[in-house]
Every structure is written in structure tokens, then in C-alpha cells.
Design goal:
CATH class: Alpha Beta
Radius of gyration: 23 Å
Strand content: 15-25%
Distance between the termini: 71 Å
CATH topology: Nucleotidyltransferase, domain 5
Strand order of the largest sheet: 17-18-16-15-21-22-23
Number of helices: 17
Structural class: alpha+beta
CATH architecture: 2-Layer Sandwich
Shape: globular
Helix content: 25-40%
Length: 505
């Protein structure tokens, strides 16, 4: 029988279950929409609905895998989404509060006012944000008056692992996104939690990413028609599992995950975080493998800028074929228009300033194809800005870029990004890199593979390279310099608005 590994990915928009063979071939996948609900408090997911999707997905992919031997199950998820679970019967005390829900803004400001922000950053690798688990718990504490004593805070991946095995745990990449985990000491930050009035035992045990926390419950084995013990592993933060799946595991390598939002994940040697890392505006933490750390930057409105453009430039919205048709009319090289893609605020190097989107350099003779191309250019400039901030601040050459995600389908955009970056971009022809990364990390940590090197020798997935044009990359380099110059003006302007607003108060 052929050995296979299962990945489970609880994402912002979809819950996915996939089976992979040892060569990285996706044998089957089940995909279900994660429906978002809203009430007076904010947005939420129904945890039982997501759990049902996982069960259905596992049944589906295994039913089509006759003749295969399931080795291990790896689970990854969006990082900051979490809930409280009742320890007495395993039922949810709360729904899943998503990472994007903003109900805990007041609690975030309270945290910022009551900590030494640099000191806490050096322990967590993060700045305080409404996304994190700690402000969510403070919000629940304020709303309910107290947190139940028989409860644990679990991320989405932790909850699914708990439902499959009955074991309560989290991994250090998900623990870190609570803002309550001390990376330096590999422990919950008791001092900070005491200051915030949150019990440390509200959190579960923390294990290394990919650790086998337990085996499938008997009822799950019966439902899946499995007779053997199958190890279940919490593999961690979805972006880091995607990086692992794509082979971004050494310093100098960068994952460019191109979706509605765009995320860069780079690798650096493990280190004590300090003022240098703080000054970048990026987030940091431990990678899912080895002793390396990662840095991470994100742009909320990357593919989102394209979706906005589709609706603004046409009614009904432009189709993707329409967009490609428009781009055929665009001239080679930079448009001369600078688009700043801050429709949902700034990218993570400058997320502390409430930036808004802008165009600079529009002329009367500009057409729709110029605007379309300028938007793609602007996103590429912003992503290159992220890469350069990391490269300049951390003093590491970052010239091995691997692109994954839905955006890789746009070959025109990839070519433009290679010209803006001025270096080749390697493109992994695997749409489900996070799912694959979780599956293979579980196989590694349960002993199926002896090393990371053996995994990458085994994986046989098409990868092609997009090269920059020598006659265009210099023109884009010059335009990028203008982008950074005008970006400074925008930062000063919006930072000034904050100051003026405070003075008015």
C-alpha cells in the first residue's frame, strides 16, 4: 500500500482537507466555505460547523484513497482566531472570534498603555493588536465579569486537534500569536498575564510544531474506517506551514504568498529580539522547523486592490479576462503612476500609521489600462518595500523568492514583480502549500522522514522561474525610488493627522 499524509487547513475563507503522497502529489482534496456570522459583538465562526466540515472532508478524501496507508495527520490554521472550550464536556463556551474582528480595540489600547512595548516585543516578536488572543480574552473578561475556571483558550487548529484526540495543546507558533507567549523562555508570560488579570491556566500546554499530541479517538477511527492508531499533529501558523511546504527554511529565502492579502515570510537565524527588529515594523517568531526564526510582513489589500479595481472601473465588474485584455494595451515599462495600496491601512512595516490609498501622477490622457497596470505596479512596489526593509534592517541578502497562492495565476503580474524586485521569482505550482506543509511536517515529526532534506529530495512538484527583463528592471528601480519618496510624504501627512487630532482634543 502506498503511504499518504493528511493535511487539515482551517483558513479565513475555507476549511480544507487534503491527502498527499510522498512525492507531494495531491491525491484528493475537500474544500468547504467557512461561513462568517455577525451579532452585536462582532464577527464570528460557528466552531461546530467548522468541525463538521473537517469530519466530512476527512471521510471524503479517505473514501477515494483505497489502497493507501494513512501515516499521519497535520493541522494548520489562521493564527489568531480562537475560542474558549468547556473542559467538562468539550463544548465551546464561545464561538470562534476571528483574527479580523475588531471588538477588542479598546482592550488593545489598554494593553499598550500598561506595558513597556519594546520589552514585550523582545519576548513576543509582536506589537499589541486587536487580532491577538490576549485582547480577545480581556474583552471576554470585561463582557462576562470573569472567565470560567473550567475553560481553555484554543486556536482553530488546537480545537480540531482536541476534537480528534481529546488532548488539549497548542504549538509555539500559534501560542505566540496570543501576545502572551514568551519566545525567549519558551513559556507563557506569567508576569504580563498577572498584570492583565488573566489566569495562566486559561492556556493549554505548548508543544513543538508538528508534535504528535495523541491519536484519533475510537469513534473517529470507526467513522473513517481506520483500524490503526493515527498520530495527530498540531503544525501551527498557516503562513509558516506554507513556507515549510515551499522549502522556505533557510536564511535568505522568502515566501511571497499572493492572495486577497499578501504576506512575505522570510527566515533568519534564531536570535534574541531587540531594537533592530523592533525598528523594522515587522513581526517575528520561531519557524516551524529547526532553530530558525521568521520575519513576516503583510499587505491587507493586495489582491484586494484588484477586486476593488474590478468594481470601480466597470459596472458590471470587470472579469479577469477583461483585465488581461486591458493590460495588452498597456505600454512596456512603468506607467509613471504611483498607486499606494492602502485601502485597508498600511503594510506591516508601517501599520502603526492609519494610511489611506492614493494615486500620484494621474494625467488626462491616462486610460483604464494605465490605471489597471498602475494598481498592479503599486502592489508590487509595496511588497518590494517590505522585502527591502527586512533586508536592510536585518543585514541578510534575501534573493531567493518563492511565490505561492492564487495570485501566481496572473503571469503578467509575476513578470512585473520580477522587474520591480530586479531578481528572479521561483513559482511553486502547488496551490495548497499550507495544506501540504502541514501534512509533511506531521510526517517528518512522527518519523516517516529522517530529515527536511529527505522531504525536499522526495517532493516532485513543478517549479518554474520568472526572470526580470534587463531593459525594464532599471526603469522600475527608478520608479520604485520615487514610490519610497512619496511614501514618506504620505507617512508624514497621516502621522500629522494623528498629531493634529490629538491637539484638537
Amino acid at each position: 500500500m502506498k503511504d499518504v499524509f493528511m493535511g487539515i487547513d482551517i483558513g479565513t475563507t475555507h476549511c480544507k482537507v487534503g491527502l498527499f503522497d510522498a512525492n507531494g502529489r495531491l491525491i484528493d482534496i475537500a474544500r468547504y466555505v467557512d461561513r462568517t456570522y455577525a451579532d452585536d459583538d462582532g464577527d464570528y465562526y460557528d466552531p461546530e460547523e467548522i468541525w463538521l466540515s473537517v469530519q466530512q472532508g476527512m471521510v471524503k478524501v479517505l473514501s477515494s484513497a483505497e489502497g493507501y496507508n494513512l501515516v499521519a495527520i497535520g493541522i494548520t490554521s489562521m493564527a489568531e482566531t480562537g475560542l474558549l472550550v468547556n473542559l467538562e464536556d468539550g463544548s465551546p463556551y464561545t464561538p470562534f472570534i476571528p483574527w479580523f474582528d475588531m471588538r477588542a480595540m479598546e482592550q488593545t489600547r489598554f494593553i499598550e498603555a500598561n506595558i513597556d512595548q519594546l520589552e514585550v516585543f523582545c519576548k513576543t516578536g509582536l506589537r499589541a493588536s486587536y487580532k491577538h488572543g490576549l485582547p480577545k480574552l480581556l474583552w471576554l473578561l470585561n463582557k462576562k465579569g470573569e472567565l470560567p475556571h473550567n475553560a481553555k483558550w484554543l486556536s482553530a487548529a488546537d480545537y480540531i486537534a482536541f476534537k480528534l484526540t481529546g488532548v488539549l495543546a497548542t504549538d509555539y507558533t500559534l501560542a505566540a500569536r496570543t501576545f502572551a507567549y514568551d519566545l525567549k523562555n519558551n513559556a507563557w508570560n506569567v508576569e504580563l498575564l498577572n498584570r492583565m488579570g488573566i489566569r495562566v491556566d486559561i492556556f493549554p500546554e505548548v508543544v513543538e510544531s508538528g508534535t504528535n499530541i495523541g491519536f484519533l479517538k475510537d469513534e473517529m477511527r470507526a467513522k473513517l474506517n481506520i483500524t490503526r492508531d493515527i498520530p495527530v499533529c498540531i503544525c501551527g501558523h498557516d503562513h509558516l506551514c506554507a513556507a515549510f511546504g515551499a522549502g522556505v527554511v533557510t536564511p535568505g529565502s522568502v515566501l511571497d504568498s499572493m492572495g486577497t492579502a499578501e504576506t512575505l515570510v522570510g527566515i533568519i537565524p534564531g536570535r534574541q529580539l531587540g531594537e533592530i527588529e523592533w525598528s523594522t515594523g515587522l513581526s517575528f517568531g520561531k519557524h516551524v522547523v529547526g532553530d530558525h526564526y521568521f520575519w513576516m510582513g503583510g499587505l491587507s489589500a493586495s489582491g484586494g486592490s484588484v477586486e476593488w479595481m474590478r468594481n470601480v472601473l466597470s459596472d458590471p465588474p470587470l472579469s479577469y479576462d477583461d483585465i488581461f485584455g486591458l493590460l495588452k494595451h498597456a505600454h512596456e515599462g512603468p506607467t509613471g503612476i504611483l498607486y499606494f495600496p492602502y485601502l485597508s491601512g498600511g503594510s506591516s512595516p508601517i501599520s502603526s500609521i492609519p494610511l489611506e490609498g492614493a494615486f500620484v501622477g494621474l494625467k488626462r490622457n491616462h486610460k483604464r489600462h494605465d490605471i489597471t497596470k498602475a494598481i498592479l505596479e503599486g502592489v508590487a512596489y509595496e511588497v518590494e518595500y517590505m522585502r527591502q526593509v527586512a533586508q536592510e534592517s536585518l543585514n541578510i541578502e534575501m534573493d531567493n523568492i518563492i511565490a505561492v497562492g492564487g495570485g501566481i495565476q496572473n503571469k503578467y503580474w509575476l513578470k512585473m514583480k520580477a522587474n520591480v524586485f530586479g531578481i528572479p521569482i521561483r513559482v511553486l505550482a502547488m496551490a495548497e502549500s499550507a495544506l501540504m506543509g502541514a501534512a509533511f511536517l506531521a510526517a517528518l515529526k512522527t518519523g516517516y522522514f529522517s530529515s527536511e532534506e529527505q522531504i525536499y529530495e522526495s517532493i516532485d512538484i513543478e517549479m518554474h522561474t520568472v526572470y526580470p527583463d534587463d531593459d525594464l528592471k532599471e526603469a522600475y528601480c527608478q520608479q520604485f525610488r520615487k514610490y519610497r519618496e512619496f511614501q514618506q510624504y504620505l507617512k508624514q501627512y497621516y502621522a500629522g493627522l494623528i498629531k493634529w487630532g490629538a491637539e484638537a482634543i
